[in-house]
Amino acid sequence: MPSFEDSLKKLETIVEQLEKGDLALEDSLRLFEEGVGLSAACKQELDAAEGKVQMLVKQRDGSLKAEPFLEEKSF
Question: Could you report the per-residue pLDDT of 17-43, keeping only the tens digit for each?
Answer without folding.
Answer: 999 999 999 999 999 999 999 999 999
